[in-house]
Design brief:
The complex is a heterotrimer.
Chain A lengths: L12 H4 L1 H22 L29 E3 L14 H5 L5 E6 L14 E8 L8 H5 L5 E3 L14 E2 L1 H14 L11 E2 L5 H14 L3 H15 L1
Antiparallel strand pairs in A: 1-4, 2-3, 3-5
Chain B lengths: L1 H10 L9 E5 L11 E7 L2 E8 L7 H5 L4 H9 L6 H16 L5 H29 L4 H21 L19 H25 L3 H7 L7 H7 L4 H5 L6 H4 L20 H27 L8 E2 L10 E9 L2 E9 L7 E5 L1 H7 L1 H5 L4 H11 L3 H5 L1
Antiparallel strand pairs in B: 1-2, 2-3, 5-6, 6-7
Helix pairs in contact in B: 3-4, 4-5, 5-6, 5-12, 5-15, 6-7
Chain C lengths: L2 H34 L15 H11 L10 H17 L7 E6 L2 E5 L7 H22 L3 H32 L4 H7 L3 E2 L3 E2 L2 H4 L1 H14 L11 H4 L9 H26 L16 H27 L7 H30 L1
Antiparallel strand pairs in C: 1-2, 3-4
Helix pairs in contact in C: 1-10, 1-11, 2-10, 3-4, 3-10, 4-5, 5-8, 5-12, 8-12, 10-11
Classes of the chains: A alpha+beta, B mainly alpha, C mainly alpha.
Chain lengths: 226, 383, 346
């Protein structure tokens, strides 16, 4: 059994006659219509002010936009990636495959670090563009650029290997769309050291173990929590 | 002996009035919000029964949570309620922070509040727009969606993505409010109000709209509480419950806002509650922005958490007021870096359970209106 | 030239003109709706998207023609033409303009001036209902059936208020023929207002307009084919040019209704205070009257589009309630008042 509350509809006179409100609504749409028709004869990009005519007009993309990946080079043209694989471990979609190796003899100055990545593959079709790989890279080598037009005809072309990623970087650099280096944000400091001194008393009360051992363990635990 | 048993079984099957028409409003339908399915039995146009069926967008999110670390699960929470992804992110982050026993710094809390209220406005814009589209008024949708684009721009300049935000991190936020926000907010506030006014002018006093929505799917507040409704659905039924007021989190107790409450729980009340909530969100953002200006430039934005988060053993349930209702995360941890169990309490699941009670006795057009006004988002419903 | 040759040319011309209006209406609908909704609409096919209807037509022709397996084949094929042909045929009695003199012969710009004028239009619209119902029923799909049933009930119910509004016109002008009615609307009455039916019959005009929206299946009365509820109702299962016939037939119907509104209530092809035949030669007078009629018809076609994108749609029982409980009593009251006034003034 469904109980329904009784709803009494009360209309004012203007609302009872449908036409008054409909006429007001028509006036509103007419205003929009006239505005947009006048605007559509303007010259220049996105003539109707609210409608971007892609692909002729493109929006300005934020510098921190999470688009297609690129492997960065430093100012001297050396590859920054050391092949540590932190990005592969951080990726929730498991789309990055990294193989580390040592640079061949005579090619050491192509790479900024002591090791390099022999192969680096990102499967764009699996990537969810979350940016966790970028955050986890210790050398700021892997960044997400501003490219969002990633559609292709073959799925094989959507597995970006190292050359493609470095080509992305070169293209971004030539267009002036490089990602600015990450700005470190102010982080609240961990709780002060005097807590460890108090720790022994507290922990003794709760666990009843020897003070020294209990103190050390609880100190490390507490740091992990905070 | 078995034959006798069989014949008895066949003849004593259930009998139904066979003139009812079974109509399948299937997972692929212009009015379905995501992939939902309703199997209705109708007598002409009146609905006798309406069985909802879910699961067409089930992606195993909770199971995924058992195999991903706490940081890796954050982008997955985006995809729950994809109209306002920030609320899901913040709910999850706050749940993990509660488990770790830390609290984000106050400036980060204000930034989270501002972003969440913007996401609330965006979600309500979509819901009201889609309600209009399903009922035949196709124009207000465009006026509202345009403002949503502006909000997207703020999101993009803050954390880099428009829709699937993955905002912040466990411990706080990762970036300060962008310059775009400071430039855009005064104008955006006025243009959101203007779009809402235009929608109001086109719809609220229009008798066709009023006939269509007043008295449709009226629901008692007691029934709503029994079913577990939360959010605008519950407030439209007359029950004043808002987690931001009853159990304040972040800094909601420091800002002053109203909670719009309806009377009858019908589609019109739900629509009005959402429209008024958008206005309240603008007020909250204004006040939070004033509070934000008091903080210095280098106030901390994040609490220090280790790279690999290993919360102590324990379980926690934390809920926030998402645009759809109470979105809750239950996280049980066994001390390792991956959670033992994550359970998500989706607000629209509780509402969708009551779908049959909501539409029984109404007409097919009312079923469509009901489905739109509940704001069922399949990503959240099915996880 | 013999009479029948002139009539044949008129038939071909008016038929092409009706199709052209329908085709351009699809473009107008898409562009005007876009301009009202802050967007652009089709602008890639040709300048300002003017070739978009051509692209749509080619697309519809080249699609695969599917007949569902369990559908009633003969009725399925019969449905669309049964809807589209009456829509075109009603153009035969619409007065597009006044006389034009070519080669010494006076030709009226109307295919045939029958003396049952708009009764013919009402009768053909009733046949068009069959097209929708047969199409809906023959598709063997629940959505189509629901659409067809709603269409039947709606269109039949709204023929009554339309008929009542038209009865008052008959009382006023004493004739069914559209050309006579337009001729009687030239000049002024009360010294100031033009002699149009709109000023003599405001209530009748409103009733007729609302009934016209219902007859044309346009929002706010477009339940038989609303997208969000019934997945396009009675033409769910149709594809290719059968769907094209339904869609174009609907726009041609719109054109007819706009033309009839103009002829009955807005003075047809005459300008309000100016008598064009006094200062224009015979051929240019014919062309000018044709253009005036077209401008008025275009305004009403735009009104159809304009209201569509502003208003939500009715629910089914509210729609029937409006037709039976509001419009018919209003129509009857209007009829009595008009009869009284006609009796008192004549």
């Amino acid at each position: 059994m469904v109980r329904r509350p009784v709803v009494k509809k009360e209309y004012s006179l203007g609302e009872r006659v449908y036409l008054v409100e409909i006429a007001k609504g028509l006036g509103l749409t007419w205003k929009h219509f006239v505005f947009n028709v006048k605007a559509s004869f303007r010259k220049g990009p996105h003539t109707v002010p609210t409608c971007w005519q892609y692909p002729e007009d493109r929006r300005e993309i934020a510098p921190i936009f999470r688009g297609a990946h690129m492997l960065q080079l430093n100012d001297k043209g050396q590859e920054l990636c050391v092949g540590c694989g932190m990005c592969a471990r951080a990726c929730p979609a498991k789309c990055i495959t990294v193989k580390r190796g040592k640079p061949a003899k005579g090619e050491e100055d192509k790479y900024a670090g002591k090791t390099m990545c022999v192969s680096f593959e990102i499967d764009i079709l699996r990537c969810i563009f979350c940016g966790l790989c970028e955050k986890s890279c210790p050398k700021n080598a892997l960044v997400l650029g501003q490219d969002y037009e990633l559609a292709d005809y073959e799925p094989e072309h959507c597995i970006y290997d190292k050359d493609r990623l470095i080509a992305n970087f070169h293209r971004a650099r030539s267009e002036g769309l490089l990602k600015p280096p990450p700005v470190p944000i102010p982080v609240e400091a961990p709780p002060a050291k005097k807590k460890i001194a108090q720790k022994g008393d507290e922990k003794k009360g709760s666990s009843g173990k020897a003070s020294v051992k209990g103190g050390k363990k609880s100190a490390s635990n507490r740091k992990g929590e905070a | 002996m078995t034959k006798k048993f069989e014949t008895i079984c066949i003849t004593t099957g259930p009998t139904e009035y066979s003139d009812y028409v079974t109509l399948n409003i299937g997972p692929i339908h212009p009015a379905m919000h995501g992939t939902l399915r309703v199997i209705t039995k109708t007598d002409g146009e009146t609905i006798i029964s309406a069985k909802p069926e879910i699961g067409y967008l089930h992606r195993g999110v909770e199971k995924l949570g058992e195999n991903l670390t706490y940081t890796q699960f954050l982008p997955i929470t985006d995809r729950l309620n994809y109209c306002s992804a920030i609320c899901n992110n913040v709910a999850y982050e706050m749940a993990v922070e509660k488990l770790l026993g830390i609290e984000a710094p106050p400036k980060a809390q204000l930034i989270r509040m501002i972003m969440m209220e913007l996401a609330r406005i965006a979600d309500h814009q979509v819901c009201v727009g889609i309600l209009g589209v399903d009922l035949g008024a196709l124009t207000p949708f465009f006026y509202l969606i345009l403002q949503r684009e502006e909000i997207y721009e703020i999101f993009e300049w803050h954390h880099g993505a428009r829709l699937t935000n993955s905002m912040g991190a466990i411990g706080g936020v990762e970036a300060d409010l962008p310059d775009r926000f400071h430039e855009k907010w005064p104008k955006l506030r006025d243009s959101i109000r203007k779009a809402n006014d235009e929608t109001d002018k086109l719809l609220t006093h229009n008798r066709i709209w009023m006939d269509r929505t007043i008295g449709v799917n009226a629901f008692c507040g007691d029934d709503a509480l029994d079913w577990g409704f939360t959010g605008p659905m519950l407030r439209a039924c007359g029950v004043r419950r808002d987690l931001r007021k009853d159990e304040p989190y972040l800094m909601y107790d420091k800002v002053d806002f109203d909670v719009p409450v309806g009377k009858h729980g019908d589609v019109f009340d739900r629509y009005m509650v959402r429209m008024l909530e958008m206005e309240e969100s603008i007020k909250i953002i204004d006040q939070a922005y004033e509070l934000y200006k008091d903080f210095p430039e280098d106030a901390p934005l994040m609490k220090k958490v280790p790279k690999i988060i290993k919360p102590p053993e324990g379980q926690i349930y934390h809920a926030i007021e998402s645009p759809n209702g109470e979105l809750g995360f239950f996280i049980k941890s066994d001390g390792s870096d991956k959670p033992y169990r994550i359970k998500i309490r989706p607000p629209c699941f509780m509402v969708y359970q009551a779908f049959e009670d909501l539409v029984k006795g109404e007409m097919i057009s009312d079923l469509i209106a009901c489905l739109s006004s509940i704001n069922v988002i399949a990503g959240e419903l099915d996880r | 030239m013999a009479d029948w040759q002139i009539d044949l040319i008129k038939v071909v011309f008016i038929w092409t003109w009706a199709l052209l209006i329908a085709v351009v209406m699809t473009w107008v609908e898409r562009r005007a709706s876009a301009m009202m909704q802050d967007r652009v609409g089709p602008n890639r096919a040709g300048p300002f998207g003017l070739l978009q209807p051509l692209a749509d037509g080619i697309k519809l022709f080249t699609k695969e023609d599917i007949i569902p397996k369990r559908a009633r084949k003969i009725l399925f094929i019969l449905g669309p033409p049964l809807f589209a042909i009456p829509a075109f045929s009603t153009y035969a009695v619409v007065p597009f303009g006044d006389k034009i003199v070519i080669g010494g012969k006076e030709i009226i710009l109307q295919v045939s001036d029958v003396n049952i004028g708009f009764l013919y239009i009402l009768a053909l619209s009733a046949i068009a209902v069959y097209g929708m119902v047969i199409g809906g029923w023959a598709s063997n799909s629940k959505y189509s059936i629901l659409g067809g049933l709603r269409a039947t009930a709606q269109l039949i119910s709204y023929e009554i208020p339309m008929g009542l509004a038209l009865l008052t016109i008959v009382l006023l002008y004493g004739t069914f023929s559209l050309r006579e009615i337009v001729l009687q609307q030239q000049g002024t009455f009360l010294g100031v207002l033009p002699n149009w039916g709109f000023f003599k019959q405001p209530l009748g005009f409103i009733i007729f307009l609302v009934a016209a929206y219902a007859e044309a299946n346009r929002v706010p009365f477009d339940l038989p084919e609303c997208e969000s509820e019934l997945v396009t109702g009675y033409h769910t299962e149709y594809g290719s040019m059968r769907l094209g016939l339904y869609l174009f037939g609907e726009y041609v119907n719109l054109g007819t209704l706009a033309a009839v509104t103009v002829s009955l209530f807005f003075g047809g092809w005459g300008l309000p205070y100016i008598d064009m035949s006094k200062f224009l030669g015979p051929i240019s007078y014919g062309i000018a009257s044709f253009l005036v009629f077209f401008v008025k018809q275009a305004f009403f076609l735009f009104l159809f589009v304009w209201v569509r994108w502003t208003v939500p749609r009715f629910r089914y029982d509210q729609l029937m309630g409006l037709g039976w409980k509001a419009l018919i009593p209003l129509g009857l009251i209007n009829l009595f008042i008009t009869a009284l006034l006609v009796q008192l003034t004549v």
